Amino acid sequence: MAETASTVFDVVILGGGSGGYACALRASQLGMNVALVEKGKLGGTCLHQGCIPTKALLHAAEVADSSRESEQFGVRSTFEGIDMPAVNEYKDGVVARLYKGLQGLVKSRKITYIEGSGRLVSPTTVEVDGQRLEGRHIVLATGSVPKSLPGLDIDAERVINSDHALTLDTVPSSVVVLGGGVIGCEFASVWKSFGADVTIVEALPHLVPLEDEQASKSLERAFRKRGIGFELGARFAGVEKTEAGVRVSLENGKQVEAELLLVAVGRGPVSADLGYEEVGVEMERGFVKVDGYCQTNVATISAVGDLIPTLQLAHVGFGEGILVAERLGGLDPAPIDYDGVPRVTYSEPEVASVGITEAKAKEKYGDDGIATVTYDLAGNGKSQILKTAGFVKLVRQKDGPVVGIHMVGSRVGELVAEAQLIYGWEAYPDDVAQLIHAHPTQTEAVGEAHLALAGKPLHAHS
Ligand SMILES: Cc1cc2nc3c(=O)[nH]c(=O)nc-3n(C[C@H](O)[C@H](O)[C@H](O)COP(=O)(O)OP(=O)(O)OC[C@H]3O[C@@H](n4cnc5c(N)ncnc54)[C@H](O)[C@@H]3O)c2cc1C
User: Fold this and answer.
1) Ligand 1 site, residue 14, Cβ cutoff 6 A
2) HSE (CB half, 13 Å, CA atoms) of 79?
3) What is the distance between the alpha carbons of residues 142 and 120, in angstroms, rounded to a whole number?
4) So what's the pLDDT on residue 125?
5) What digits encode the pLDDT tens for the residues 58-81?
6) pLDDT per position as a tens digit, 224-246
7) Residue 368 DSSP one-character state
8) Is any atom of ligand 1 closer than 6 Å to the C-beta of 268?
9) CA distance linking residue 434 with residue 315, whole number of Å
């Protein structure tokens, strides 16, 4: 610590999750002298309690489904069950390897890494365990934690949040998932594949309510077929403990019993008691307010990631961290087009999208100002080989570019990279229609949807 006592860093970053460490890595690449303060584990939520462990569970779930359903493909195998300690060992192994790699990366970039809980004490100072770190610039990146509802206590045993769900060493026999957003749907999908009875309770009219309504309905159809139950437009009223677990009451009078209740009603910013308000940083509902360049109202302070009111996604945190580093490094980065950020729900089936929904496009361009096409995966060879159902839906501005791409089906998350390029380049359907897609791949469905919207459908009825 002695080397930091008299140093004024170019940038001091508070929080070493996706947003904070991406900022640190880019800033050091640009020649800045960087201090990164982290009270837990480098990598934050995404690496330790979010993206990576959940996707490992989802992969194990896919393997379980494949072995259970192998006879459909003429392969004889016996599914004997889930060995949860072994699943956790696999999941934790993935996390540990990435964690080690990230620690090595931060070290190799000569970033001063400080373990401890930090607090903002002036527009240019962070204090950690009595030590003051001075920075020409400060970046707040303290992230988010799971929220609950008023009066709903998380006891970490029968009423749990996503952090606890990742450490279970048995598969629950039944679960009520409160919240049908991305996190709720992903856990519901995992547990169903692992053999649990699952019921999702969602207050809004649809699962994954931020997605295009057609995508939500398609996911609901697929979940229904998989035997995942859900109550939509249903508000939580209360929970009581029973001998076997919990009894969850809904405002519509229904009750659902299960071994566990997973509360997945969103994540709130980590900003309380960290000195932000005292130093004069403008806040809104606990989030730090920023402009399009992640700059707060205090000239020396920027903020990134789940702490600011933008999409709560790891790659958004990466993008914001990089943007801030480049701005502080004297480059001229463009603000982020948040509509152009790809979004994936990694359930079975997956939901992936980029751009705006049909409803938003109608608001923006008028009911007659848009055109849409939905290409059914029934016409896509590879999707039939995989036995998956779903679609690729395009929304375009009439006589203009494609402004939204929405997809449902196994593995469609991998298609979002092309969708993102199409959206980002403001491509017209004709531009994409002339690109030949490899056969037989699911990417062909993206090509075919554009052929259809350009008025020349191939494997689709016109
Ligand atoms: C179950 C789950 C699944 C998810 N899946 C995906 C996914 O598939 N794809 C995706 O893009 N996103 C996913 N996310 C979201 C993603 O994890 C977050 O958007 C991302 O981690 C936000 O990064 P961040 O840096 O803003 O915050 P965080 O990752 O939360 O990092 C903040 C860091 O700051 C530290 N900190 C806080 N206060 C202090 C302090 N006072 N002093 C020092 N350090 C402090 C914390 O310890 C933490 O490490 C998922 C989230 C969850 C919960």
Assistant:
1) yes
2) 18
3) 11
4) 98
5) 999 999 999 999 999 999 999 999
6) 999 999 999 999 999 999 999 99
7) G
8) no
9) 30
